[in-house]
Design goal:
Muramoyl-pentapeptide Carboxypeptidase, domain 2; four-stranded mixed sheet; 21 strands; binds zinc ion
Length: about 500
């Protein structure tokens, strides 16, 4: 039950991402450089075609250089008075030569006036992940970054040969660099970099920093002009603490390269329409899509704790509970919405799913956690208490960090006990595609393990109401990301 190896399998499965082609870019953006309206290109194509030096800084020099042309010399009039045609021809040749020299002169002047962009000129010190330091490397006026260091920081999987290295993130996306080549491969696409990939001391691979700015999302790249430093960190999500940070997902954003100037409310995302149901569920509308729609966004996780004494209001019995004598409760609004979900799910042919767990008090979670802890230590007596705790934390919440204490979530499946293999069931596929219509989201999705801090749980569903569930579904965000997204959207 613990440490689901299956996670990787699901992450890699293409069907997870192919449910809608358009969603992938949004997801990249969502986890990406939202905080930083960066100077990434508006589109990849633009970046590809752009010559290395034709950035805005070069253009700034242009007026200065062109103003020199005002000094174009005047041809002396007395020369023209000499009537010999030979002389005239010589003079014309002379003028042509003079003009040629002037053009060369101006070209040289122009090139000497060209000042490399500020970022390139400075001798920066890199700070990766707040600690490791490297001096910047500038080759042909292109500022490079240490990809080996970044890879260590972001836990990329490195493969390939010494001359052709591939860096893979946990959803299977990769970037591949060939030493000496300015072409990089991102999955199926080829992009041109400002300069070639290089190998320097200690076999570290260096690539133009602009590549990271343009094509890697989930990074914070900060220039400090005063101290000549460039800090590269993984973006932290809101709610992170110093002791327990959780990070944005790192992705290569070849498909979702649009630059965000802060978050703009997307009307497509906001358009939440009433779904077409097989059954008449109109009496459940008020629960699936509650008027006080922001009341169900409470975030409980490993860093955002719920008070020991928190007791949800309006707890009612869950109708579609497993028929083995157990009794489970849930907040009324969520329970009614869940009833609607079950009506529709049964009509779709999935009749064997039932709720195995709903509201859990702090004390119940506490005893559950201790039970798991003892089981782990019984299975492996050499484990220290801390080691065992770490293992249990991958599949069970520490008391005060369980969402079940909110009364807004359930575990439901058609297995004897909750297991990741539920993801292989057709009922899961139906839930995954439809639960948002009833106001539910998969709380711990397969591709958000880094963010939620939990293994993939295909059985755990959280009520947030249809409005927010639909937007989360469309944005491809888990609750941590979505709450963060909302707080940033409010800032703009
Ligand atoms: Zn659960």
């Amino acid at each position: 039950m613990n440490n689901f190896d299956e996670n990787n399998e699901f992450v890699k499965r293409p069907s997870n991402n192919t449910q809608a082609g358009q969603q992938t870019p949004q997801r990249r953006v969502a986890t990406g450089d939202i905080r930083r309206p960066n100077n990434a290109p508006q589109s990849n194509r633009e970046q590809i075609r752009r010559p290395a030096q034709s950035n805005s800084n070069t253009k700034k020099q242009a007026p200065q250089a062109y103003s020199q042309k005002a000094h174009t010399p005047k041809i002396k009039k007395e020369n023209l008075k000499i009537k010999s045609s030979d002389m005239l021809r010589n003079i014309l040749i002379f003028i042509a030569m003079l003009a040629g020299l002037l053009i060369i002169g101006f070209s040289l002047l122009l090139s000497s006036l060209y000042v490399a962009p500020e970022k390139v000129k400075a001798n920066y010190t890199y700070i990766y992940d707040g600690k490791t330091e490297f001096s910047s490397v500038v080759v042909n006026k292109v500022l490079y970054m240490n990809m080996t260091e970044l890879s260590d920081m972001c836990n990329f999987i490195v493969s390939g040969s010494k001359d052709c290295l591939r860096y893979t993130v946990d959803n299977g996306e990769f970037a591949e660099f060939t030493v000496g080549s300015a072409s990089a491969k991102i999955n199926a696409d080829i992009v041109n970099m400002e300069g070639a990939a290089l190998v320097r001391e200690n076999e570290n691979v260096w690539i133009p920093l602009s590549f990271a700015e343009s094509y890697i999302s989930g990074l914070d790249i900060q220039y400090d002009e005063e101290h000549n430093t460039i800090s590269i960190n993984r973006q932290e999500l809101s709610g992170s603490t110093k002791d327990n940070p959780f990070y944005s997902k790192i992705t290569f954003r070849i498909k979702g390269s649009q630059t965000l100037d802060g978050i703009k409310e997307d009307t497509d995302i906001g358009a939440v329409t009433t779904p077409d149901f097989i059954n008449d569920l109109s009496e459940y509308e008020q629960y699936m899509d509650p008027q006080n729609r922001d009341d169900y966004l409470i975030l409980v996780n490993k860093t955002s704790h719920i008070d020991e004494n928190y007791l949800p209001e309006n707890l009612v019995s869950i109708t579609n509970v497993r028929k083995d004598g157990r009794k489970e409760q849930m907040v009324e609004c969520a329970e009614k919405a869940l009833q609607a979900l079950f009506i529709e799910m049964k009509s779709a042919g999935y009749t064997d799913v039932s709720v195995t767990s709903g509201y859990r008090s702090y004390n119940k979670q506490s005893s559950l956690f201790n039970t798991y802890l003892q089981r782990e230590r019984a299975n492996n007596p050499s484990l220290t208490l801390e080691d065992a705790k770490e293992i249990v934390l991958t599949y069970s919440a520490f008391p005060g960090t369980s969402e079940h204490q909110t009364g807004l979530c359930v575990d439901m499946h058609n297995l004897s006990s909750a297991d990741v293999s539920f993801a292989n069931k057709a009922a899961y596929t139906w839930l995954k595609e439809n639960c948002y219509k009833f106001g539910f989201v998969i709380r711990f999705p397969e591709d958000k393990v880094d963010i939620t801090g939990y293994s993939f749980e295909p059985w755990h569903y959280r009520f947030v109401g249809r409005y927010h569930a639909t937007r989360m579904y469309n944005l491809g965000m888990c609750l941590e990301e979505y709450v963060d997204y909302l707080s940033r959207a409010e800032e703009h």
